[in-house]
Amino acid sequence: MLKIAWHPIYQHPLPERHRFPMIKYDLLPKQLLHEGTCSEANFFEPTVPDTSHILAVHTQDYVQRLFNLELTAKEIRRTGFPLSKELVDREVIIADGTIKGAEYALTHGIAFNIAGGTHHAYSNHGEAFCLLHDQAIAARYLQQHQLAQKILIVDLDVHQGNGTAEIFAGDTSVFTFSMHGKSNYPFRKEQSDLDIALEDNCTDEVYLNTLYKTLPQLIDKEKPDFIFYLSGVDVLLEDKLGRIGMSIQGCKERDRFVLSTCKHNDIPVQCSMGGGYSPHIKNIIEAHANTYRLAQDIYF
Question: What InterPro entries is this protein classified in (predicted)?
Fold first, then answer.
């Protein structure tokens, strides 16, 4: 059975200018239930994980100041959000959703977090709407509990996973792969194990052919026993924060290829949703919903 992390706190209210992107966390599960792709049994509610799991990735100083709401004004501006206890609680619960999703994936082959993909969170600070790095925390959890040894992070959000690259720099047990817009945020990029920077308005054909050539070779070379997939839909042509030119169908084919490749190689995969900032919420929901539909078709 497909397992999906969702919690009411994912819809944490924010000031007006931040609310639009948050709507998807309410609408996406409703759409999946409405169309019959999922039932209530597919969803589970994460809780608060042990702080030790967070400290395996983030520095004690940063975590302590974050939990105590003691970040500086500059640090808060860097995150893009006004800091609050509810926001911190949201990030902590998102991390637990990805941890538990990774455990479910070991049994079911695949699992999802409706939220997550907070790949701009560094070990010692937050950036760009990301306070804690959910997939990094889950990756370390799997390793520390001897549930996985070699992990591959496949980041196909339109923005480079700079926090991912920083956290795992020099760590050969986690291979970081980011395929992103060359001219997009972050403008000072970190170095992943493999970065593929795409030109503005990259077409479906160019994007997909690049992915077709890259991912199977990476798996053959690195031989991961677990994959984390960040399936951001901000690669769409109409996205307000992206500069890539993909169609919804191209984005769907991207997800089909990644999930089919994981299934074919018998590698468990945990998927976090990442970004999506189209001016049309129906297109964000459709692009995200495609990933879940494909998972049901390919795995169940």
Answer: HDAC_classIV, HDACs, His_deacetylse_dom, His_deacetylse_dom_sf, Ureohydrolase_dom_sf
Tokens of 28: 């996406």
Residue 198, classed as helix, strand or coil, is strand
Omega cis (within 30) before 82: no
> In this structure, how many other beta carbons lie within 10 angstroms of the beta carbon of residue 240?
12
Alpha carbon distances (Å) from 71 to 41, 74, 83 = 39, 8, 8
What's the predicted TM-score (pTM) here?
0.96
User: CA-to-CA distance for 38 and 3, rounded, in angstroms?
Assistant: 9
Q: How far is CA 279 from CA 31, 242, 286, in A?
A: 18, 12, 13
3-state secondary structure of 287: helix
CB 39 within 8 A of CB 51: no
21 is in which domain, residue-wise? 3-299
Tokens coding 215: 């991912």
Query: What domain count does the chain have?
Result: 1
Nearest to 4 by CA among 20, 28, 24: 28
CA distance 147 to 226: 9
Euclidean distance between CA atoms 56 and 134, whole angstroms: 12
Residue 38 to residue 115: CA distance in whole angstroms:
17
The yes-or-no verdict on residue 11 having pLDDT over 70 is yes
pLDDT in tens, 243-274: 899 999 999 999 999 999 999 999 999 999 98
| CA atoms of 240 and 258, how far apart (whole Å) | 25
CATH number at residue 252: 3.40.800.20
Measured over all CA atoms, what is the biggest interatomic distance in the chain, rounded to whole angstroms?
48
